[in-house]
Amino acid sequence: METMKLPTLGQVITHQRTFTQQDFNTFAQLSGDDNPIHVDPVFSAATRFGRTVSHGMLLYGVICGVLSAHFPSARQVEQELLFPNPTYAGEEITVRLEVTEVLADQAQARIQTTIQRTDGVTTCEGRMLIQWKAAS
To answer: What distance in Å separates the CA atoms of residue 58 and residue 27, rounded to the nearest whole number?
Structure first.
């Protein structure tokens, strides 16, 4: 049986990703959220964004994937997210998870989550609390 790699205070995990319009379209089809701001380039060109933007839950899914890749046995107990700026297709983003607190006696850790575009603009920010099964 493999032992879970536990988070350590100050640990930073990053992951780069570039979404395509097809990613937005596929997520819309799977989720049922086909708001034109995500899937209609002509419609979104006339909005304040000027082009299609990612679904917030698509960004959250990527955060979950990064978390699962590094701490596969952990489960999320809490998640808070804000989306202060848009994430566009064709622009590279960096997902950053930083362990800000380890509560070893409770088998929990607090993690700051951030997604930024290459121009330094934050498109998603939040916090999560994860928990793992304590050793018996």
So the answer is: 7
